[in-house]
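BUG-494 | component: ligand-complex export | severity: low

The export step for magnesium ion jobs runs without errors, but we want the raw record kept on the ticket for reference. Input record follows.
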Amino acid sequence: MGRKRDILIAALILVGLWQVSALLLDSMALPEPWIVLVDTASKIADGSLLDDLAISTFRALSGIILALAAAVPLGLAVGAEDSLRRRLSPFIYLLYPIPHVVLLPLIIILFGIGNFSKIFLIALIVFFQILVTTRDAARNIHRNYFHSMQTLGATRLQIYRHVILPASLPKILTAMRISIGTAVAILFFVESFATTTGLGYIIMDSWGRADYVALYTGISCMALLGFALYLLLDRLERRICAWTRTD
Amino acid sequence: MIRVDSVNLSFSHEGEVNQVLQGISFAVKAEGSCAIIGPSGCGKTSLLFLLAGLLQPDAGTITITGSPRTGTILQHYGLFPWKTVVENIGLGLQLKGEAKDRIGARVEGLLAEMGLTGFGRHYPAQLSGGMQQRVAMARALAIEPQILFMDEPLSSLDALSRERLQNLILQVWRDKRITTILVTHSIEEAVYLGRQIIVLSQRPGRILQIVDNPGAGSREYRQTEQFFHNCNQLRRILKEEDHGPEA
Ligand SMILES: Nc1ncnc2c1ncn2[C@@H]1O[C@H](COP(=O)(O)OP(=O)(O)OP(=O)(O)O)[C@@H](O)[C@H]1O
Ligand SMILES: [Mg+2]
């Protein structure tokens, strides 16, 4: 459990640095951490922040799950099937480097300004990150694993289930680690306008009102959301990729 | 009965044709044991892949009468690192749609037979090289094959586990009456385990000689005059191939 202790110490040091900076700066723009903590706790306790926390979590999670559901099967197939790879890789090559976030206007025109547009944009961006990693993982599986399956008389579907998917999973999870950061960043972006719910809105709104404590409460909750998603992924990884930890 | 008739094999890579096997002909009768030996890179693995149906020859034919069940142990990346020992061994039966409890019973029996009891829930990377090879053997035997193809199954082992596994192979061959084809680069191993020894030349692999070794098949053979004599004969053939006839 040394790792947990180290993380706790690091967290304390970071909060300590915040405290010191706040004291040194002595400005309204940087309140002391305990004030923010009290504000956060009271707003969660009285329920006023819970809705925003819930809707933001919902948007981020749905975006990620939607992206996974589309990118993993497609990535595995494009990586593992030569003909599919030849046909689709040029498209991926062209579409991947585009900053998809600029498609926001188009998405809003198509889907309106509701939740779906927000989720869709998160999903779109995460989709490409996971797609490319999954494809490369599925493509670089050693030939002998396929030979082994062949000697055991496996069907193509069985090869996907027993070789291509499990062999690619560690890399997919690594890609997800990066995607969580992206998803939360995009979440902030899509919640910063045309909505009155979510942590992004809280941040923009309190900024506008120069309510700095509320601003930092929003920022802290956003950070906590990212961290919680990270922890969730850790759990998942320990469960489904136990074989990569051989110590 | 396995019959190989005038088989040629080449790989082409970016227009460059690489001849690997040339005019290979031999036959192994049912319940026989055949060792294939030759210098590194001469095409031993390729020949085994041809026999196991993982490659197709450019010319010539390979006939295996009676479409028997076959088990295969590959030289590298044979076991699935993401599956436990039990899952690896049971995979062939699982793919065939066997009932869970029947697979469980069969795997349990094989674990005991291979001296792996208590390691069923381990992942391959947590096992020693010798144990990994016994898992590979158990997996190949799980489907009760009539022919067993093995590609240097013992090359990565220390002397002691090597000898123990050689005895295991011998026992499997004798007790289960499985036709065994064993690729090896060890002269002693070939003579100990192969009643028929196919000596390949350097690439492109041709058959230099087929050595009859009818004494193989018992543990005592290792101590006999004939064993040493045949080892020396093999050594001479391989040396001449390496340096040309001695002056
Ligand atoms: N899939 C492949 N594509 C192209 N060339 C190949 C392929 N497989 C093997 N070769 C080439 O064929 C030749 C024979 O390879 P093979 O693996 O059969 O030799 P080997 O006798 O098993 O070698 P080793 O003793 O190292 O195991 C080598 O030159 C190798 O580079
Ligand atoms: Mg080889």
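Assignee comment: Attached the raw record above. The CA atoms of residues 42 and 202 of chain B lie 5 Å apart.
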